[in-house]
Structures are given as C-alpha cells and as structure tokens.
Specification:
This protein has about 90 residues and is mostly helical. It contains 5 helices and no strands.
C-alpha cells in the first residue's frame, strides 16, 4: 500500500487508520513505519494532514521505541525533517 496509488474513495479511511496506528502506544513499530510512509505519500495530495502528523510525532516522542526516535537523535523536529518517509514534508517549524 505504501508504494501504490490509493484510489480516492479509500484515502479518508486509510488516513484515519494510519493516524490511529501511529497514535497507539500498543501498535507495533513496523505498522507505525508503514503508516508514516503512507501518510507522507498522502500528504502530497492533502497537505493539511502535515500538522496533525507533526503533532502526533511530538506527542508520542517520549514513549516510542528507539526505531521511532533514532533518526532524529532525540529531536522530534529533526525526525520530521530527516526521517526518510517524511523528509519532504514542509511547514514543520
């Protein structure tokens, strides 16, 4: 799903599911990584989701695994800029 075009009629449900995954303290790291990639791809068409994505990353920062935090070296702003699926997101200040 992270490398295919998602039909428009499914995008809303998929975005909601991905946001649920990255927000959940119980979700596995792999599901969160795939969800971040999917949300990054969808943010190209729906830039309004970028702020919500940033907010969730900021809120979950302390509670996530090293795999979630390591690209940013304990700096959530840097993670948003450097994490590969998110490296093209803008307006994260």
């Amino acid at each position: 799903m992270q490398e295919i075009a998602i039909p428009e009629r499914f995008r809303g449900n998929i975005m909601n599911t991905c946001f649920d995954y990255i927000s959940s303290p119980d979700e596995k790291a792999a599901a969160k990584a795939f969800s971040l990639t999917i949300l990054h791809n969808l943010s190209k068409q729906y830039p309004e989701i970028k702020q919500e994505l940033k907010t969730i990353i900021d809120d979950r920062w302390e509670y996530e695994s090293a795999a979630f935090r390591s690209p940013g070296k304990k700096d959530p702003q840097r993670t948003v800029r450097k994490f590969t699926p998110l490296n093209n997101l803008t307006n994260y200040k």
